[in-house]
Fold this sequence. Notes:
Order of helices and strands: EEEEHEHEEHEEHEHEEHEE
Largest sheet: 7 strands, antiparallel
Amino acid sequence: MTLYFDGDTHTDNSSHFYIKRDGWPLTPIVGYCPGVTPPCPTCNSQKICIFFKAGFVGKNQSKWEEIMTPDNFELCNDYEIIMKSNFHPNWICKDCYDGGVVLEITKNLLDEFKKSEKNFTQKSKPIMWNENCKKLSMKEIHAKESNGDSPVSMIAVTRHQYDIDNFPKYVNYIKNMLQKSRIYYGLWSDGKKIEYDVLYVIPTDDYKEIQKHLNAHDHLNNGVTQRMALVISKDGTTKIRENNFISRN
């Protein structure tokens, strides 16, 4: 396969290319590089090719280029979502050859939050979604994150967040600075309001390790430190681990 670049100058280090296979004419499939892409959800590779299939032109393409420029998108390889996303850009990983569709983080996630928030109260248990906006049980999260039967702990990097406008900042921080390949989104009551959270998991319930993580992300939240972690056991039961090194806030 040969990539033919269009030679035009685009903002934010983006570029376009057209795909040509040996023995075949230049295709109307247009590739797009927004400069920075999320890692592959299967192998965590950064070698991602995003492309618009034939017929994906004009204002629809421009809309998605605007979405992807600020890195406000994610890569989805969930078959059911792919089948419902005919008018989304596609992607393929050059390392493991997994592929799927591009999703806008804010719109899909906000829709899920709003639906669940209708019946969510201050006494409700946390509700979690994965990066593809698929709701997960605590037992499913444990199965993904545990090395065996030992408990795991969910750590939020958000604090006092009541909208999702800044979520891409938190996602980039978890993946690029903390080098965590999986992130989760959650509804969580702080006892007064319903917070919107971005979280990651550590494969332990060790007290000192949890405390270290709870106190590591205050610079993202105007100096406000995390108040608690959620410890998940193999059977899906949970318990709160308080941050004992800070005053209640």
